[in-house]
Amino acid sequence: MRSRFKYLLFGLRSQLGKRKAEKAQERKKTATVDAAIEHLVDGIDPTMRVVIGYKKKLWQAVDEVLNYIDLLVEKIPGPVECNRKSFATDPLVNAIFATAGDIQKIFSQSEAVRAFFDEPMNVNVDECYALMCMEKEERTGFGIGLEGEVVKKDVPQVSVNFSAHSIMSPAATEKEVRSSLKQCIFDALISNIFESVMANHVREAGTDEYRKVLDRRYKANQAWGQELTDLILSIRSDAITSCATSADASTMQDESDVQNGQLEAQDGRLARVLEILAQPECMIRLDHVPMNLTRMGIKVEEGSSQAFNKIEFTEFSINAVWHRIIVLVRYPRNEMRQKDGLF
After folding, report:
1. How many structural domains comprise the chain?
2. Across the strands, what pairs with 329?
3. What does DSSP say about strands 80-81 and 322-332: parallel, antiparallel, or unpaired?
4. Residue 128: which of 108, 105, 98 has the closest Cα?
5. Among 223, 208, 172, 190, which Cα is nearest to 65's?
6. Among residues 39, 41, 44, 318, which one has the least CA distance to residue 196?
7. Which of 15, 235, 276, 318 has the fewest CB atoms within 10 Å, i.e. is most exposed?
8. Residue 134 pairs with which residues in a beta bridge?
């Protein structure tokens, strides 16, 4: 009887503990979505807050977008070791860098990587994790190729080259890098929504309203940091421009009270935001691109007589306009060049 009572008591404690953990998880999720909603509204148009129940209207859509981004980022392979040894052994590393020396040069010249290793708190950290973005270019030309066992000249071929390597969000752990990438993707989505929702309004509203919106975008970019600005280079919003200065802040102070017509406009704007949020895959995509490449970077078909490696690249696309190959990487401190030997 006593053992049965102990068993029941254990089961009750287990259920209470599980329920407590679930409630804590729910509170954490609610806080995350609430913060994301406010971040989104700040980045698009803060006056949408005049819409009654704006947070409730946005909650489910933002929650689903965050889940979509989580799934995308967790599917990114890696981390991939980038060093002299892996250049010789890993076909992916061999493909995205021209030489082993380029690996050292690119990482050593990265201000973000140097700043990470120079941080006092990272003095005992032997390697960093980061996101690397780069451009992929395919060129058609003529070169030497094999047809069976015969070497021939002037054979049509496609060479695949990678350039404009950019290293973002270096951190001590893979988890931190993935978390930063999720934030960057969400911010890129906000910028695209801003472009879609606000562009016509800004053009029609005149200079004063343009300056107000310009200032909001300037402040948003300051808050998000340089990494996001670099990530969304192709976003065509006139509001993200170097002519924005903190002096524009004065234009925000004297906004008039919201009238009925303005409230209707904010309702329509919020509805448009919800339409876009319902299809995040139309703006933000991660695609896996398989390729057969030789060690010289020549693209070949399956069954080619040339030796090749099957490599799967991950392509990040924003609004079907901006495309970059991305790789989650790991780089050792001991391969960093000293500042004196960077150039």
Report:
1. 1
2. 80, 130
3. parallel
4. 108
5. 190
6. 44
7. 15
8. 325
Q: Can you tell me whether residue 127 is helix, strand or coil?
A: strand
Within the chain, where are the H helices? 2-44, 54-74, 84-89, 91-96, 100-108, 111-118, 174-205, 207-224, 226-231, 260-277
Cα(289)–Cα(173) distance, integer angstroms: 26
Whole-angstrom Cα distance, residue 156 to residue 166? 31
Name the band, by pLDDT with cuts 50, 70 and 90, for residue 146: low
Selection from 181, 254, 264 nearest residue 215 by Cα: 254
Confirm if 139 and 161 have CB atoms less than 8 A apart: yes
Average pLDDT for the chain: 79
The strand pairing partners of 190, in sequence order, are none
Q: Which amino acid is at 213?
A: V
Q: How confident is the model at residue 241 (pLDDT cuts 50, 70, 90)?
A: very low
- Do the domain assignments include residue 132? yes
The range of the structural domain enclosing residue 150 comes to: 15-343
The answer to whether position 7 is within a domain reads no
- Cα–Cα distance, 335 to 343 (Å, whole number): 15
Distances, alpha carbon 111 to alpha carbons 107, 116, 168, in Å: 9, 8, 10
Does 9 reside within a domain? no
Instruction: Summarize pLDDT for 29-69 with one digit per residue, the tens.
Output: 899 999 999 999 998 888 899 899 999 999 999 999 999 99
CA distance linking residue 194 with residue 191, whole number of Å: 5
User: 1 by DSSP, 3-state: which?
Assistant: coil
In a domain, 3, yes or no: no
DSSP per position, 50-118: GSTTHHHHHHHHHHHHHHHHHHHHHTS--PEE-SHHHHHH-HHHHHH-SSHHHHHHHHHT-HHHHHHHH
Distances (CA, A) of 123 to 113, 141, 158, 174, 342: 13, 48, 45, 18, 21
End-to-end CA distance of the chain: 80
pTM score > 0.90 for this model?
no
The SS3 call for residue 320 is coil
Tell me the residue length of the chain: 343
